[in-house]
Amino acid sequence: MAQYQKIASISEITDGKMKEFKVNGKTIVIANVTGEFLAFDGICTHAQCALAGGFLDGYTLTCYCHGGQFDVKSGEVLSPPPVSPINIYPVKVESDDILVEI
Ligand code: FES
User: Fold this and answer.
1) Is residue 50 in contact with ligand 1, taking CB distance under 6 Å?
2) Which of 8, 15, 72, 95 is the most buried (most CB within 10 A)?
3) Left (φ > 0), alpha (ψ -120 to 50) or beta: where does 75 sit?
């Protein structure tokens, strides 16, 4: 059953940055978009490239492999070649800790 787990500290992920974590056998990424922390699958649904190696512009993440784009808030595909969305995960911040429900 999914439960909130501490994954990172807020100081680890500065504004506009993202970082990959391995949690329960999953690869997830936490991004900081102007102080809002978002968690989502770290593997591109197109050809399994690591999304943490991509480029973040606001909520738009561009995969470095083939330029596919995702909205990291909704998980939706914004630009092909990916056709399937990425999973997103609820996040809460408690003091300096970032907790993700996985
Ligand atoms: S692997 Fe991400 S766009 Fe192709």
Assistant:
1) no
2) 72
3) left
Pocket of ligand 1 contains residue 49 by CB under 6 Å:
yes
- Domain range holding 69? 4-101
Domain count of the fold of the chain: 1
**Are 8 and 98 in contact, with CB atoms under 8 Å apart?**
yes
**For ligand 1, atom 1, which residue shows the shortest CA distance?**
47
Per-residue model confidence as pLDDT tens digits over 56-85 = 999 999 999 999 999 999 999 999 999 999
> In CATH, what number is assigned to the domain containing residue 36?
2.102.10.10
Q: In what order do the strands lie in the sheet with 91-94?
A: 4-9, 97-101, 91-94
**Distance of alpha carbon 65 from alpha carbon 36, whole angstroms:** 26
Distance separating alpha carbons of residues 64 and 73, to the nearest angstrom: 19
Asked whether 47 lines ligand 1 (CB < 6 A), one says yes
For the entire predicted model, the pTM comes to 0.96
